[in-house]
Amino acid sequence: MSKSQSFDLIVIGGGAAGFFGAIIAAELNPTLKILILEKTPKLLSKVKVSGGGRCNVTHHCFESTPLSKHYPRGQKELKEIFRSFQAADMMKWLAVKGVSLKAEDDGRMFPTTDDSQTIIDCFLNEAQRLKIQVMTNEGAEEVIHSTQFTIRTSSDKIFQATKILVAIGGHNQPRAYEWIEKLGHRITPPIPSLFTFNDSQKEFKDLMGIAVPIAKIKIAGTQFFEIGPVLITHWGLSGPAVIKLSAWAAEYLHQINYQFTALVSWIGDANEDDLRQKLRSQQETRSKQSVSKNPMFELPQRLWTRLCDLAEIEEKKVWAELPTRNLNKLVEFLIRCPFNMKGKTTFKEEFVICGGVDLKGINISTMESKKINNLFFVGEVLNIDGETGGFNFQAAWSTSYVAAKEIVRPNPR
Q1: For 48-194, where are the E strands, in sequence order?
Q2: Among 222, 237, 254, which residue's Cα sits nearest to residue 353?
Q3: DSSP string of 262-288, one letter each residue
Q4: Is 97 exposed, middle or buried (0-12, 13-18, 19+ CB in 10 A)?
Q5: What angle separates helix 391-407 from helix 87-96, to the nearest 10 degrees?
Q6: Residue 112 burial (CB count, 10 A)
């Protein structure tokens, strides 16, 4: 066991929240001796893969209340936190460092370079400039608190710290949180958020790659639904509406072991009676046209053909000869197309966890533990998670900023 080293602040976790918290603390008080401990060989690994390697830094939403509404868990707390630091503030901070962001049509914000390495280099350069020490392959195995904190790492190194910032991210293994539980904090069991749906019957597998820009997807028998782009994949359904739905329904879907029926309206939030009337009008206006060969609602031809097949409409059937029974079936498959789901698939490499450190044990105005002074929690280690689109990173930046401001305040004598 090695001789211990002492620091004013030790950050446990070398990801987005950990680096940003360390940098802000060092900017506010350059005299602080700061160490970042990262258990893996890689730093900022999630930043690297986010947004397909472009890094979805934040979302173009610059008001605290609307921004907070994109978080299934932590919404009330983040509304307060965003009053101190939100998306516009992160954009300005990066601009000062020479990193400019751009907003895409869906609100996601990326560096203008379209390269996540731009953000990584910014953080690494700032850490170096501010003389923040960084150690990889050093995970916290045990944290003991007395007058100071003693940290034992996975390689049996010992460190002393006056203050600790916990930024280990989200983990699917409860074991990762054990040392935090020993400090007296309750852990909400971790379960996945942000995932795609696996279709057990794969009836639409041959249509993989087809996307509908405005569809409505609902979990049958619940109030959970989302409207937006839906993508047919070789394993089931994906796209922004599906991913968003997975976040809001994460706890429910976990309870039912990811076995459920998803109902898809391929034409968005349509009124059933209006739709039926519109289809009936085709029997006059397009009486001689083939039903299956002339798609409506700007749906892709192959998808329209499949829906007609499911409605048992023969290929040669024209609108004037379409029986009411088949027309009603077509209505059903247009607005309540059923998929029997069994299981889930992680959305790309954007692994997000629902669960973590219970927010009731945290002072939200400072991110400090209510149980132990000078112990702070930020980012996805908390029971906070957002929709896809830069929201999880923004929660990391904001919680880290609030914590750093408190960390640099001198302890009362």
Answers
A1: 58-59, 101-103, 108-111, 133-135, 140-145, 149-153, 158-166, 187-193
A2: 254
A3: EEEETTSS--HHHHHHHHHHHHHHTTT
A4: middle
A5: 70
A6: 10
> Distance of alpha carbon 96 from its chain centroid, rounded?
27
pLDDT in tens, 334-386: 999 999 999 998 765 557 899 999 999 999 999 999 999 999 999 999 999 99
Pick the closest to residue 18 from 163, 169, 119, 139 (CA basis): 169
Q: What is the pTM of this model?
A: 0.93
Please tell me the distance from the alpha carbon of residue 267 to that of residue 162, in angstroms, as a whole number.
Answer: 58
The residue among 409, 410, 404 whose CA lies nearest residue 27 is 404
> How far apart (Å, rounded) are the C-alpha atoms in residues 247 and 131?
38
Cβ distance 12 to 165 under 8 Å? yes
Contacts of residue 341, Cβ cutoff 8 Å, sequence gap at least 6: 197, 198, 199, 200, 236, 258, 259, 260, 261, 262
Q: What is the pLDDT of residues 252-278, one digit of tens each?
A: 999 999 999 999 999 999 999 999 999
Cα dist. 326→266, 313, 321, 396 in Å? 18, 6, 10, 52
Pair of tokens at residue 134: 């960084």
User: In this structure, what is the dihedral angle of CA atoms 146, 148, 150, 151, given to the nearest 10 degrees?
Assistant: 120
DSSP letter, residue 51: H
* Structure-token pair, residue 404: 């750093």
Q: Are 357 and 181 in contact (CB under 8 A)?
A: no
Q: Which of 176, 239, 161, 109 is CA-nearest to residue 380?
A: 176
- Residue 363 has phi, psi (to 5 degrees) of -80, 105
